Amino acid sequence: MTVGLDITRQVRPPRAVFVDYPMGDEIGRPGNSEEQRRIVRGAFEALAAMTEPGMIVDLGMKAGGDAPDGRPWRDWVYTKEFRRHYMRTREGARPG
Amino acid sequence: MPIEYIPRTRDLYDPLPPYRWTDNRHLPVPWTPLRKPLADCRVMLIASGGVYVDGQQPFHFKDDASTRIIPSDTPIERLRVAHFGYPTADAEKDPNCVFPLERLRELAGDGTIGGLAPQALTFMGGIYSRRRVTEALIPVVVDKVKQQNVDLCYIVPA
Predict the structure, then answer these.
(1) Is ipTM > 0.90 here?
(2) Helix-, strand-, coil-residue percentages of chain A, each rounded to 5
(3) Which residue in chain B is spatially nearest to A63 when comparing CA positions?
(4) Whole-angstrom distance, CA of residue B156 vs CA of residue B47
(5) Measuring CA to CA, how many Å separate B29 from each of A55, B24, B74, B92, B131?
(6) Is the pLDDT of residue A96 over 80?
(7) Which 3 state secondary structure label does DSSP give B93?
């Protein structure tokens, strides 16, 4: 699985399946079993289409939802502000 | 447009020196054809989201290249998450977000896949040292995969 197309295009694993979801929700949102099922089933169904080394299949699934200030999550995830609120440092604390 | 994580990571950790992402574009892509129908394949789940079982040692964040074995029949309520490189709140609520053990058990149950390996394998993917990944982590992963005698690995990064 991948949510980072630019990284995967550079690393070139034998097979990859892409969903446009935030890092941390690679298999869908918490508690949404149906969405998770579509992603996992989609990944296995994509196996048949991956006949050449290095292919990346896009399942065409995009996460909805916004950042807390109403911006789209794509503009916000993995930014400094995002990290301050939602990620830990290597020391285990919040960057705060 | 999908997120471009490479420039975003550079900005996120500025003014630290930019992380040197692996670039295999000049190398041939390794390839093993799938030789069996999916319904006959034994599948192993491998995930880098820092998932462990309650009672195991949690991952630390300083280039921890250790692995955890997670029996494939582990109740989802017993799974925990330790990772600094992505927001873990969703995975703490529902580990399937980065470690879809319940979803894979369903696929094994309805015959979509032939079955699950007895054990899944996890690690904490926020390892800055590529040397530690290639020399300490990967040989262990390869060994564990060979021990499970599987046809397919389903790899979920986080």
Answers:
(1) yes
(2) 35, 20, 45
(3) B2
(4) 5
(5) 10, 8, 34, 34, 20
(6) no
(7) helix
Checking if the pLDDT of A68 tops 70, the result is no
CB B154 within 8 A of CB A43: yes
Say which amino acid occupies B69.
I
Mean pLDDT for B25-46 is 96
How far does the CA of residue B73 sit from the closest CA of chain A (Å)?
A: 18
In this structure, what DSSP letter does residue A9 have?
H
Q: For residue B122, give the 3-state DSSP assignment.
A: strand
**A4, A10, A28 ranked by CB distance to B22: nearest:** A10
Facing residues of B71 across strands? B119
Q: Is the peptide bond before B15 cis (omega within 30 degrees of 0)?
A: yes
Give which of B68, B127, B126, B128 is closest to B101, Cα–Cα.
B68
Are the Cβ atoms of B156 and A27 closer than 8 angstroms? Answer: yes
